[in-house]
Amino acid sequence: MDSILVRGNGALNGQIPIAGAKNTVLKLMCAALLTDEPLTLTNVPRLADIRTLSDVLESLGCEIAQLANGRVLALNATQLTSHKADYDLVRKLRASFNVLGPMLARAGEAIVSMPGGCAIGARAVDMHLDALERLGATIELKDGYVHASAPKGLKGAEIPLRFASVGATENAMTAATLAKGTTVIKNAAREPDTKALADCLIAMGAQIEGAGTETITIQGVDSLHGATQAVIPDRIEMGTFMIAPMIAGGSVELLGGRLDLIPSFAEKMQEAGAIIEETKLGLRVTKPDGPIKPVNVTTEPFPGFPTDLQAQFMAMMCFADGVSVLEETIFENRFMHAPELLRMGAHVEVHGGTATVTGVDKMNGAQVMATDLRASVSLILAGLRAEGETQVNRVYHLDRGYERIEEKLSAVGANIERVKGS
Ligand code: UD1
């Protein structure tokens, strides 16, 4: 298995292009199941998760062509040849549970494996199922699969979510596009990915209002048509590369970077001392002279501080001049990077959903491994300033969500390489 070697190498300077958003493109791909016409996606990142979801969609009869070196995906679900998404495929990627809403709406039937537990927490799907039941579906759980059926079609309904779940909002919204009548989703997720999905559905002929706010109203239509949609920039990749120069020093311009995608994160970065400027091409982040300031953060649904940037922020706080408290409220088991950071010399104490980080002057390279995507990248970030060599194992987690991370970081001066494993 490949690993990544990082050696602390001083300041980073230069430009890093930001790829299309993983968490957006996966949901747009699922939307292709809603129509018998082609959906073409541009600005697609080249990531392992896209291959995994492509396998799921192909197993349902969707044809997928990669164009422009993988930057463009053409998806064509002229005919659904199966209504069953298998465990072996769904278990690899939770986002594939979002084939449920589109398949049910289009075919009146869907059998989708429960996504199962995941390294960062239980990640239940009760709200997804409740939403579809409110739309008139009959749901049964059998042998680890969700059997959803609505032979006479779905009917618009009011869907109050007890928590602003991203996945449940998206499953409900996609299903409701083809339901009869009006659906109102209350306490809806406001994440940019959810807004981008609504924009794509609107381009396909859906009638949706209020995406990006707490109330989304969908007026069902008889059918959707093909469209071409560009994927928005990846705010989590952007945030990760904003932290890199704060840890290593220097100044990096993020091409395609946008502050509106990360409002709370940008504020916390500024509190930590980062100088952030909007440029003609995106954003520039500069580490000022002097130490990183300690900053407390609590993860929250958008527009709050994203859970997907908590691990990276912790890596930065490991070098801060004082004590910071990081509170994780979205996923219950999301501090698995902490013990690995300790191996590199960090001072982190975890109690339940709270991590207290006492900054240190110096950390040391070590062999580390992480059990999820964002945890892995936090170890690379720490390695940028650690003395000696950090070897991050289990790189397949990184490849799920970061496109050519070693190339992007070495282009701005990091000493980082991929070592091919057996
Ligand atoms: C989450 C993130 C999203 C990120 C994605 C990928 C939040 C709010 N969501 O989305 O920004 O892009 O991971 O990393 O930060 N839950 C239930 N029942 C349900 C659905 C969810 O109890 O039916 C719980 C989950 O167990 C979890 C929380 O709600 O504790 C967050 O859920 P949700 O937003 O649905 O997660 P994802 O869609 O995976």
Word description of this protein:
Helix content is 30%, strand content 25%. The chain has 14 helices and 24 strands. It has helices spanning 22-31, 48-59, 87-90, 100-107, 126-134, 166-176, 192-203, 235-248, 263-271, 310-317, 337-343, 373-383, 396-401, 405-410, and strands at 3-7, 12-17, 39-42, 63-67, 72-76, 84-85, 109-113, 138-142, 145-149, 158-160, 182-186, 207-209, 215-219, 227-230, 250-255, 275-278, 282-286, 297-298, 323-327, 347-351, 354-358, 367-369, 389-393, 415-419. It is elongated and about 65 Å long. Strand 12 and strand 13 (215-219) form a beta hairpin. The mean pLDDT is 95. The protein has a four-stranded mixed β-sheet. The chain has a four-stranded mixed β-sheet with strand order 2-15-17-16, covered by helices on one side. It has 422 residues and is of the alpha/beta class. Bound molecules: uridine-diphosphate-N-acetylglucosamine. The site of uridine-diphosphate-N-acetylglucosamine has 23 residues, from helix 5 and helix 6. Uridine-diphosphate-N-acetylglucosamine is lined by residues 23, 94, 121-128, 163, 165-168, 191, 193, 301, 306-308, 330-331.
